[in-house]
Amino acid sequence: MVEEMERADEKDWHELEPNYPVKIFLTIFYSLILVTGILGNSITIRVTQVLQRNGYLQKNVTDHMVSLACSDLLVLLIGMPVELYSAIWFPFTTEQGNAFCKIYNFLFEACSYATILNVATLSFERYVAICHPFRYKALGGKRTSALITFAWLVAVLVALPLLIATGTEGHIPVLAETPVQNLTFCTNLREHWVMYRVSIFVAFIVYMIVLVCVAVMCQAMVLVLRKPLGCADGGVNGAQGSAKHEDSKAKTARKQTIIFLESSSLTFTEKV
């Protein structure tokens, strides 16, 4: 064990870092992703607000889209610069300190969870509006604010254990108890390894539950929107009559909504 510690102490860890051409390439690549993400989400926020102001989009949908775009922006602004600095340019030293490491892991995971849950709450509200319109009207105007608050609150609660389970830790060789040299990493702490694993497992369960629920709701909405208006009330004759009176704008809106739901379900699946 002593020989192993001596070898680890003498090892030049900088040899494992990417060379400068790779660092420069990854810096440019990360910067492009960051700029694209900031522009895309900023445009989303602006466009949804303009559409709502002109009457083309409901306020509850706008609120959900703004919340989703904000969580995406926070993921990019928090994750990209820190990842570029700590994982690519200086992977074997964490000079910001233990508190910064904990806060970074907590905020990044909380915003990531919020992105997924915002998709879920938006899907749930659209599901109720399309499949259960009378129940949707009975829920009242504070429904959207409650759903968005619920999404962010659950995201914070799920990420909260990372404030304890992560931090800065030096390099510890196998069978050793203390670091052998001044190498610090922002990682999960050895003494809280069980809590860290439980946190990751709970997050995975949340992701899977949300994934299944969104897929089921999107499928139900697509099935309802593909039916002609009034088919549930008037049978075959009612369906034929309603189909004749359904104008081209309504049909176009239905098709666009169906495409949006199917693409949203696919995008959410890929993100999870």
Automatic annotation (TrEMBL):
<keyword id="KW-0807">Transducer</keyword>
<protein>
    <submittedName>
        <fullName>G protein-coupled receptor 39</fullName>
    </submittedName>
</protein>
<feature type="transmembrane region" description="Helical">
    <location>
        <begin position="198"/>
        <end position="225"/>
    </location>
</feature>
<feature type="transmembrane region" description="Helical">
    <location>
        <begin position="103"/>
        <end position="124"/>
    </location>
</feature>
<feature type="domain" description="G-protein coupled receptors family 1 profile">
    <location>
        <begin position="40"/>
        <end position="223"/>
    </location>
</feature>
<dbReference type="InterPro" id="IPR017452">
    <property type="entry name" value="GPCR_Rhodpsn_7TM"/>
</dbReference>
<dbReference type="GO" id="GO:0004930">
    <property type="term" value="F:G protein-coupled receptor activity"/>
</dbReference>
<keyword id="KW-0297">G-protein coupled receptor</keyword>
<feature type="transmembrane region" description="Helical">
    <location>
        <begin position="145"/>
        <end position="165"/>
    </location>
</feature>
<dbReference type="GO" id="GO:0016020">
    <property type="term" value="C:membrane"/>
</dbReference>
<keyword id="KW-1133">Transmembrane helix</keyword>
<dbReference type="InterPro" id="IPR052676">
    <property type="entry name" value="Zinc-sensing_GPCR"/>
</dbReference>
<feature type="transmembrane region" description="Helical">
    <location>
        <begin position="66"/>
        <end position="91"/>
    </location>
</feature>
<keyword id="KW-0812">Transmembrane</keyword>
<dbReference type="InterPro" id="IPR000276">
    <property type="entry name" value="GPCR_Rhodpsn"/>
</dbReference>
<dbReference type="Pfam" id="PF00001">
    <property type="entry name" value="7tm_1"/>
</dbReference>
<keyword id="KW-0472">Membrane</keyword>
<comment type="similarity">
    <text>Belongs to the G-protein coupled receptor 1 family.</text>
</comment>
<keyword id="KW-0675">Receptor</keyword>
<feature type="transmembrane region" description="Helical">
    <location>
        <begin position="20"/>
        <end position="45"/>
    </location>
</feature>
